[in-house]
């Protein structure tokens, strides 16, 4: 599914990622944890082609294609989805228009005709169920005036619409109360299959109670410094990151 | 000879012919206007109000003027579908350069409600002398702008609309100015619009220009809105890149009336839009807004002056500009609140996006408040599209060009919401889309349509 080799990336000339290696196989759920400022969100931005970052070295192979240098829209159409940590509010662009444009661009990429309006609306209705998204929200502007929980639910709704092969959930648990967290996690779990994979970026164990990872990585100072099974997350919850920092910085 | 010189000579030589081809109130104020023009001349960049637009220069070329009111021998109704907004062609009137067209009637025109008069201003000056005498030149009389005097001195005809007390127009009226001629032409059209107490009307005022020639339109519109009356005034420009368009709109508002002015500029050359509003009675409400979509070397300069002479009135002002390439946008807005005009509410906003390095936007928001119990604010922003928003849309598979277009649509959407005629809103939305796709210039010879003609 995804193979990242020796990935280095800068923002404004400052190196944030310093040689990331990561392999995600079909159907796997990975969790990337790590202290603040370790480069977790940068990694998600870089994989999805955010032009604010410069990749200086390395490869990102997604289903056999190197997607380094590809436009964000093409990466999306190839099947990568990012659930934003801070979803952007876009007043004046309706959710319906936004999603219809996105869906039809994905279809065009696959050589398919645009979805007829009635079928599109049916699809919207179906996918909203995954995250119990209110009808009213779907008729509003993108994220405008949405609560923190509604924004995150809206991200998972978009994920359900676009049916990505690889989903990156960037701090999807932040700002959520327990009920919202459960709804979002249920949505993600329902969308899981043996063919698609998930990368969860998170600070806390909390989300991992709901979405159980196969593999947990710790990112620190721009590198993956530890990889283990789901028990690592519990250990981190108990002991914090200091012991890892000591291990790495002590070397 | 100065730029003004050629026009002063024309007036001296032909004032007799001008008066012969005009009538009544238009002639009564003509010589005095000419005297003022001779003294003031055209505004230049030395005038505070014209810092970014050298108007005098626009008058320098040798334009023809149709002083003898020669008939241009076109029947605009043959192509009315090109100029009208689809779905609201109940009543469409034409000004050919500056002459009202009434040689032929509009086929299948809707009935006008009883008492409503819409006709040539020249004709009205004779047949409805009492009305025209009462209003003509009254809203513009305090203007210090030489180009207004110029219009008053040379204008022979134009558009007259009178909606008497309590009459509600059941459909919008369309007024289309067609610039068409055999040679470069300067036109001095004039409109007089009277909406009496408790009456209601909507007007869509648009301008089109023939392709091959250069035109300068210097138009003055005076609007009087009576007590508790409702009036909507839409001004649509979709002309061409070598058009010079100068508009002066003067509005007098009486107690409790509701007025909406929306100026939509999609394609132009050099345009100066002046709007001056005077609140004369309490509890009146004004929505004043506009959008400008400029690229190439389009130049749009908007100047608004809103005078709150009495209290309890509201002004909501919103202008949005999207500037690309080497276009220039200017916005200068003043809301004045006189000493006794307590409980005034005035909001003025100008927001602009510059999409290119060479696009220029000059904005001068301005409040002048002499009363002490008012709610007023003003604000102006100039910026670029938000990169985070662009990336968010692209990350969902939407191409950069489409993402930017969606954001530009969103940017002007609140001005679009102030188009309260659904058919016009649809037509404008279509034009905006074409403009953002770079398709606004029609391929059809001799017209730049706002209708489905070029869809």
Secondary-structure blueprint:
The complex is a heterodimer of chains A (251) and B (455).
Chain A: E1 2-11, E2 14-24, E3 29-33, H1 40-47, E4 53-62, E5 65-66, H2 72-78, E6 80-83, E7 90-94, H3 95-109, H4 117-130, H5 135-138, E8 141-142, H6 148-162, E9 166-170, H7 178-191, E10 197-201, H8 206-210, E11 215-220, E12 223-228, H9 231-239, H10 242-250
Parallel strand pairs in A: 3-10, 3-11, 6-9, 9-10
Antiparallel strand pairs in A: 1-2, 1-4, 4-5, 7-8, 11-12
Helix pairs in contact in A: 4-6, 6-7
Chain B: H1 3-20, H2 24-28, H3 30-40, H4 55-58, E1 64-65, H5 80-83, E2 91-96, E3 99-100, E4 117-120, H6 121-127, H7 129-135, H8 146-154, E5 158-163, E6 173-179, E7 185-187, E8 190-195, E9 200-209, E10 215-225, E11 230-238, E12 243-253, E13 258-267, E14 270-279, E15 285-294, E16 299-308, E17 314-323, E18 328-337, E19 345-354, E20 360-369, E21 375-383, H9 387-394, H10 400-416, H11 422-436
Parallel strand pairs in B: 1-7, 2-6, 5-8, 6-9, 7-10, 8-10, 9-11, 10-12, 11-13, 12-14, 13-15, 14-16, 15-17, 16-18, 17-19, 18-20, 19-21
Antiparallel strand pairs in B: 2-3, 4-5
């Amino acid at each position: 599914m995804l193979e990242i080799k020796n990935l280095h990336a800068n923002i404004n000339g400052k190196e944030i990622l310093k040689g990331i290696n990561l392999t995600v196989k079909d159907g796997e759920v990975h969790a990337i944890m790590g202290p603040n400022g370790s480069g977790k969100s940068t990694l998600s931005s870089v994989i999805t082609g955010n032009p604010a970052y410069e990749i200086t070295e390395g490869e990102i192979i997604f289903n056999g294609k190197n997607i380094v240098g590809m436009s964000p829209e093409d990466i999306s159409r190839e099947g990568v989805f990012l659930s934003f940590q801070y979803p952007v509010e876009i007043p004046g662009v309706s959710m319906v228009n936004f999603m219809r444009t996105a869906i039809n661009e994905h279809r065009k990429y696959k050589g398919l005709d645009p979805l007829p309006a009635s079928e599109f609306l049916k699809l919207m209705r179906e996918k909203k169920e995954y995250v119990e998204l209110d009808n009213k929200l779907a008729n509003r502007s993108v994220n405008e005036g949405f609560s923190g929980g509604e924004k995150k639910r809206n991200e998972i709704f978009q994920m359900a619409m676009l049916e990505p092969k690889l989903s990156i959930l960037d701090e999807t648990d932040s700002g959520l109360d327990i009920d919202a967290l459960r709804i979002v996690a249920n949505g993600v779990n329902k969308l899981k299959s043996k063919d698609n994979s998930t990368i969860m970026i998170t600070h806390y164990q909390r989300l991992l109670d709901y979405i159980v990872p196969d593999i947990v990585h710790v990112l620190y100072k721009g590198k993956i410094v530890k990889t283990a099974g789901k028990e690592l997350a519990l250990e981190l919850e108990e002991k914090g990151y200091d012991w890892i920092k000591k291990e790495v910085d002590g070397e | 000879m100065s730029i003004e010189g050629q026009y002063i000579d024309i007036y001296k030589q032909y004032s007799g012919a001008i008066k012969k081809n005009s009538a009544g109130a238009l002639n009564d104020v003509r010589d005095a206007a000419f005297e003022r023009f001779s003294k003031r001349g055209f505004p230049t960049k030395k005038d505070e109000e014209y810092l970014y637009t050298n108007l005098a220069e626009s008058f320098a070329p040798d334009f023809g003027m149709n002083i003898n009111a020669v008939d241009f021998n076109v029947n605009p109704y043959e192509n009315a579908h090109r100029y009208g907004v689809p779905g609201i062609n109940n009543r469409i009137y034409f000004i050919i350069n500056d002459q009202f067209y009434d040689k032929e009637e509009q086929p299948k025109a809707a009935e006008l409600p009883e008492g409503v008069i819409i006709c040539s201003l020249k004709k009205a000056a004779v047949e409805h002398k009492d009305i025209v005498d009462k209003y003509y030149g009254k809203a513009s009389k305090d203007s210090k702008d030489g180009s207004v005097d110029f219009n008053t001195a040379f204008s022979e005809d134009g558009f007259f609309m009178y909606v008497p007390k309590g009459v509600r127009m059941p459909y919008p009226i369309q007024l289309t100015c067609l610039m068409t001629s055999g040679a470069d032409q300067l036109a001095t059209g004039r409109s007089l619009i009277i909406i009496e107490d408790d009456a209601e009307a909507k007007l869509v005022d648009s301008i089109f220009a023939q392709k091959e020639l250069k035109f300068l339109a210097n138009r003055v519109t005076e609007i009087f809105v009576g007590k508790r009356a409702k009036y909507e005034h839409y001004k649509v420009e979709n002309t061409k890149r070598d058009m010079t368009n100068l508009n002066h709109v003067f509005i007098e508002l009486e107690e409790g009336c509701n007025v909406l002015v929306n100026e939509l500029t999609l394609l132009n050359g050099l345009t100066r839009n002046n709007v001056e509003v005077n609140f004369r009675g309490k509890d009146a409400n004004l929505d004043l807004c506009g959008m400008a979509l400029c690229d190439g070397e389009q130049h749009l300069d908007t100047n608004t002056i809103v005078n709150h002479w009495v209290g309890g009135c509201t002004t909501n002002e919103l202008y949005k500009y999207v500037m690309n390439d080497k276009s220039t946008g200017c916005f200068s807005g003043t809301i004045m609140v006189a000493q006794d005009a307590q409980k005034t509410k005035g909001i003025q906003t100008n927001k602009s996006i510059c999409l290119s390095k060479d696009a220029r936007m000059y904005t001068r928001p301005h409040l002048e408040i002499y009363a002490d119990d008012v709610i007023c604010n003003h604000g102006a922003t100039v910026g670029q599209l938000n990169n985070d928003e662009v990336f968010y849309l692209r990350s969902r598979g939407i191409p950069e060009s489409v993402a930017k277009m969606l954001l530009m649509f969103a940017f002007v959407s609140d001005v679009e919401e102030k188009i309260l005629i659904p058919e016009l809103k649809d037509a404008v939305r279509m034009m905006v889309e074409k403009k953002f796709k770079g398709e606004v210039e029609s391929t059809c010879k001799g017209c730049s349509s706002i209708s489905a003609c070029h869809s």
